[in-house]
Amino acid sequence: MYKSLVKPLLFQLDAERAHHVVFDNLRRAARVPGTKALLRKLYDFQHPGLAREVFGLKFPNPVGLAAGFDKNAVLTDELATLGFGFVEIGTVTPRPQPGNPAPRLFRLPRDEALVNRMGFNNDGAAAVAARLARRRDRQLIIGGNIGKNKDTPNEHAAADYVAGFEALAEVVDYFVVNVSSPNTPGLRQLQEKKPLIDLLQQVQARNLGRTVPRPLLLKIAPDLTDAQLDDILEIARETQLSGLVATNTTIERAGLTTDGAYVASLGAGGLSGRPLRARATEVIRYLHQKSDGGLPIIGSGGIHSAADALEKLAAGAALVQLYTGFIYEGPALVGRINKALVSG
Ligand SMILES: Cc1cc2nc3c(=O)[nH]c(=O)nc-3n(C[C@H](O)[C@H](O)[C@H](O)COP(=O)(O)O)c2cc1C
Questions:
Q1: For residue 344, pLDDT beyond 80
Q2: What are the φ and ψ backbone dihedral angles of 188, each rounded to 5 degrees?
Q3: How much distance in Å is there from the Cα of 98 to the middle of ligand 1?
């Protein structure tokens, strides 16, 4: 029904507007008694064989919603009904910020891709933490993806990540440090060895000082070289990370079917969806092999089918996440992947 009825209507709208329409309608519908139960019946496929224990957390299934869809944690109760094993909220910055001017989200339907330069539009860590504290569904595993404000210089970035961590520590189950978005000027420079070790050490120091530390992960770009990936693994060991999220969107535009002039006219941003699939899998495989499988990886990038998810898991991902595939395929994709996992 999604692909034949809902998607054609949504795809008539501007991409960001469609996002809000989906949000508002899911929220409104879920308030009608019985709707959540109906959504669960339709979409939430449960099976004991899907359970995974990763970095000390018990996931009911390995298919999650990637960061950026529910940045402000306004829809976690509703998303819980769609069969996700976990939802990553954010990226959240310490202070609220509007993000980049619109238009900032574009579809490339022929490539089943998106280009976005949202720029961490979000309500700020305090508001998001308060919202998560009020949520009803306590079963759903929530990841907290944290970043820095646009106007915070890189020299002070670590303080922003520490502030985001402190604000959310009681209300999320694991953390992701995001230094890989292409849409905050200079952010990806924080992936360099020295600033990254410093940043992660500061967050980890707070984390390990807690009675119950949270698993701390790092999300990386698909555009890193092998030497940079080697550095990431060394840094992960040195700062006692629990895992990696691989990968974020790419700044690469090679190999697209969509007209090059049109793609260029959209301007800067991160490309996600099908064209990212192969490179994201390659990064996962490299990290998995180089770490001898010792570091759990959440695989993200271009998962639009059960086969795509199985490919990521076979490459060494312990869990997977999707965003663009959810837009192109609809909520049934989650159950489709989980059913394929059960039937082997
Ligand atoms: C519109 C949009 C917004 C995103 N926002 C964030 C974000 O705030 N933080 C983040 O870590 N990743 C963000 N991402 C990246 C996704 O979480 C995901 O890693 C990436 O899109 C690759 O997966 P996909 O091909 O399934 O979309 C965003 C992606 C899209 C399409």
A1: no
A2: -70, -15
A3: 17
Residue nearest to atom 28 of ligand 1 (CA): 68
Candidate of 71, 248, 311, 334 to mutate for ligand 1, largest count of ligand atoms within 8 Å of Cβ: 248
The closest alpha carbon to 71, from 134, 114, 109, 19, belongs to 19
**pLDDT tens across 136-148, in order?**
877 899 999 999 9
End-to-end CA distance of the chain: 26
| Helix orientation angle between 332-343 and 35-43, rounded to the nearest 10 degrees | 40
Nearest Cα neighbor of 7 from 64, 118, 19 is 19
- Which whole-number Å values give the CA distances from 208 to 82, 156, 185, 325, in the listed order? 34, 21, 30, 36
Q: Are 119 and 101 in contact (CB under 8 A)?
A: no
For residue 181, indicate whether it is catalytic.
yes
Tell me the C-alpha distance between 66 and 323, whole Å: 5
Please return the burial class of 138, using the count of CB atoms within 10 Å of its CB with bins 0-12, 13-18 and 19+.
exposed
C-beta 324 within 6 A of ligand 1? yes
Looking at the DSSP assignment, which residues form a beta bridge with residue 238? none
Return the DSSP state at 169. Answer: T
> Of residues 181, 242, 272, 300, which has the active-site annotation?
181
**pTM check: above 0.90:** yes
- Fill in the DSSP letter of residue 97: B
Which amino acid, one-letter code, is at 332? A
Query: What pLDDT digit, counting tens, does each position of 225-281 carry?
Result: 999 999 999 999 999 999 999 999 999 999 999 999 999 999 999 999 999 999 999
